[in-house]
Every structure is written in structure tokens, then in C-alpha cells.
Amino acid sequence: MQWGEIAAAGTNPERSNPATEERYVLVVDDNPGIRKMLSRALGLSHFRAVEASSIAEAVAFADNHSLSAVILDLHLGEQCGLDLLALLRVSPRHRSTPVLILTGSGLVTNEQQAQIQRNSAHLFYKPQPLSDLVTHIGRLAHAQECVAGV
Fold first, then answer.
1. Could you read off the pLDDT of 95-106 as tens digits, one per residue?
2. What CA–CA distance (Å, rounded) separates 133 from 18?
3. Which tops the pLDDT comparison, 31 or 10?
4. For residue 34, how far is the Cα from the chain centroid?
5. In angstroms, rounded to a whole number, what is the distance separating the alpha carbons of residues 98 and 146?
């Protein structure tokens, strides 16, 4: 599955499915096309994707929900995704939630890489196959569920 292929799949991730009820993946990206594509791919893998275009939208949802994982764009327009990562890590609810930092930029500074590692996040570069990203999220979420005893 590639970045453009999932749009043609025609799935509706909003559709209620008991297997996805509590498997929320927060997708935070300022690009609506990327958010929609990731949401559809996650829906095919039985996750319930919740889209946010900003840190404020992401925090509003995360404050009230448990998350299986977060996919977070490194560059959110004028905002930096690492600011949200830091907020998640100080929250008792999300301290250990798996976070995958997504970037299309080949330029990640040493300081950014260090912050990603310090906060136990994972860096994923586009344009790797979309199926690789979804598989990686599945592994991270499963590992977290095992630790939490879900």
C-alpha cells in the first residue's frame, strides 16, 4: 500500500466496529489529505483514527481519551510536533503512549532526534510504504496493550 493508493479503497473509518471502539490512534497533521489517508489505512487495520490539525485539537481529544498510539507530524505549519510530544509525556495518561513522528523532510536536526529519543518516540520518514507505517503502529500498540494488560 502506497501513500496515494489508500484513498481509492473507499473505506469509512468512522463506521462503528466493536474491535476498534477503544483502539484510538490520534493522527496529528496539518495536511488534511495526509490525515484522511492515514485514517483510512488505520481503519483497514481495525484502529479508530481521530484526526487533529493542531496541537490544541490533539490535546482536547487526548485529555479525555486513552490512546493506543499517536501519529504526529514533525512540522505542523507554524507549530512543532515535538511540543505536543512533550505535553503527552508529562501527562500520566499518555506518558507511555506510543508516538510515531512522521516527517517528509529529510532534515531532522540532532537536537530533534535527541528529543525524540528522550521521549521514547519513533521517527518515520515519508515516503516509505504506508503499509509499513500501519504495521509499525500495530506493533507499538500491541506492545503497549501487553504492558498495560489489555
1. 999 999 998 877
2. 23
3. 31
4. 11
5. 13
